Amino acid sequence: MEDWEHGGFGLYIHWPFCQAKCPYCDFNSHVVAQIDQKAWQKAYLSEIERIGADTQGRVLRSVFFGGGTPSLMDPDVVDAILTKVRATWSMANNIEITLEANPTSVEAGRFAGYRDAGVNRVSMGVQALNDRDLKALGRLHTATEAMQAFDIARNVFNRVSFDLIYARQDQSLADWEAELGMALRLAVDHLSLYQLTIEDGTAFGDRYAAGKLRGLPDDDRAADMYVLTQDICGAAGFAGYEVSNHAHSGDESIHNQIYWRYGDYAGIGPGAHGRLTLDGQRYATEAPSAPVGWLSQVCKSGNGDLQRIALKPDEQFAEFLLMGMRLSEGVDLRRYPDEQNDVLLNNINILLNLDMVELANQRLKVTPLGRPVLNAVLRGLLDT
Predict the structure, then answer these.
(1) pLDDT tens digit string along 244-253?
(2) Which candidate, 67, 238, 307, 317, has a CA 20 to 30 Å from the CA of 106?
(3) Topology of the domain covering 3-259
(4) d(C-alpha 307, C-alpha 122), whole Å
């Protein structure tokens, strides 16, 4: 058994286009006037064929259409992609096929087209449930439009997740508690709840650097919001199986678990990253981020990757910890026995004494005390 099989094999397809660029977003997304959807379809099919030749015999556990805004894709393009996927790999019996959607691009006929193509799960970018905060976040939809889109989604799909951002400007603990309660009453089986993060290179990042992004919570209030989120979601039956993700038991995102359990995943599309194990060596892959550049490269060379970088065992182990410690189940250290040196064991002992982690039968996981300061725990774990 190869190491990647502990996590499984998935496919990520990046659609880089949006109707507008949100001020907090640092994803590879672009606003353009026109999109030649058939040209993009041809490039995606070419890449699937190329990667399929390198990964013959694998069972595909998930497909994830991310972005950007994949709900701007024509349903027949999604259908062509999934038809090619089915012809390229064996599909798991419980394969999860997710498409991200924004409320402004949701319409019943379009969603029915995605369902008929094979999509069986949607992830809605709602982000807030009141108009004031939606406007501050640069979202194009209103709260009413979000609810209408959500109703369409759950009438078409059995599995529906949606995203919310908290620790927003001028948001109190009571505000978030009320909004989270509303979200849980709406939720079907899964919620992704993210603290607002100010990233360099975004409009919010520029405003923050200039001292113009006011009303953000301090670290203590943000931590209180995180703890409140875990408590309320847990009590409602939406366990926090990962730092920012909550689900009913059995409804966890298969695709994201492939990432966090350090499986293999192929990344297709502008700026897409992947991890592929070929002939016993794990490689990191990355595609050029510019949409026109990626499309041109695929058309001219038949290869959408910039390069494949062979990862050393210690690099793989660091990634394994960085991803797996996000999960409530933690990591099984027996997967990397050669990396368990005295430095790591000392770091683990320090964190054990601080009650930040727990270790049993070689499974290492973060405690409830350590989870709100996960980044600090990871720094301590990887300290050399």
Answers:
(1) 999 999 999 9
(2) 238
(3) TIM Barrel (3.20.20)
(4) 31
